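Section 3.1: Structural characterization of target chains.
Under the original work plan, the team committed to producing a structural model for every single-chain target entering the pipeline before any wet-lab resources were allocated. The record below documents one such target. The sequence was received from the expression subgroup and is listed exactly as submitted; it comprises 389 residues.
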Amino acid sequence: MSTLDSQFPFGQRIGLFILAEISAISASSVVILLGYIAYSAVTIRQGAERRWRLTSPVHLFLLNQLVCDLVQALGGLMNMKWMIDGNVHGGAFCTAQGLIKQLADVGTALSAGNVAIYTFSTLIFRLKPDTNLPRAALIVVGIWIAIILDVAINIGINGASRFYGPTGPWCWITAEFSVQRTVADFLWMWISAFSSLLAYVAVFLVLKGFIVVEGWRVKWTPRQESPTIPQSNILAYKMLAYPIIYIITVLPLAAARYNTFEKRDTPFAVVVLADGFYLSSGFLNVALYRYTRPYLLPHRMDSLEDQSHPTFELASSQSHLPGSNVFGDNHRNSPSLMEHKSADPEYGASHQYGTHSSKTSSGRGYVRNDKMWEGELTGGDAANVDEDI
């Protein structure tokens, strides 16, 4: 199906149209979110309860992931041309799609892996969240240098028009370069998915109490049931959704492509389903961003119906006792977090959201207060989990 004489059947055209529509939804979602963030950072000033500011490395990492999602969606949108033409043929447009698809594959893989590693190191080993934005920017620059080198080396050796070409219903790395397909594209995706899965399992076991981390030592401990889930763990569970989204969207695609590598017939409906999952990652990440980080989406104070947002403090590190969670609040043996704060005279009448200044016994507790939305650190080496993880 790589020449003008070969026409797609109606079913394949419908499949390409569906993929283009999914890409359009993802691209629109990412553009709207990035546009709103830009509007917030530049425009919302007077009367704003909060505005978006780039104060935490995770902000930069998630922005980078959204940009990669946008590139990925652009590659999917280009399928519309093949749907209209009824065939795939070589040329500048085909080469551009192949290049964009490789950029997106490697970019989303490295970005998702970066977020997973950052979350893992902060939650499991209680490493202080790095607030050095220049260092975080260097990490992002390093990711893009790796992406560009991955693409440029192959183009320089093989030539773009030869390296990229028609591959079934769209353009990508041609079958002539099967080794490069694996090394320069799939390998990054598999490594990222595998590392994200390991990070998810490790964090899940710690949060459920099966594993206790003491410094750099890891111990297995019998699990004890807790009647309630601490707020700190709820936040951590939400952050685990990011690597899960990547795993869910990548594995079907990897399975379908592996099946193709093995020269097995793969129904086009399966290809569309797998690619549809993959191309939907932009929309899913935007929805997840809204779910896990709602207070990073700013609005003015007069539009708020409820100003009584809950507050919480993650206890200091007498942690790592059997039964304590990864952040150190021994929820199995202690009163609830809110009861503890209500009974503490240190808070008194200033316990309302946005007014209190909290303390921790060792300076390692994470505090959520009115400054958290700007990512400011409060007290000693304290950092805000909701912002800095």
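Residues 10-42 form the longest helix (33 residues).
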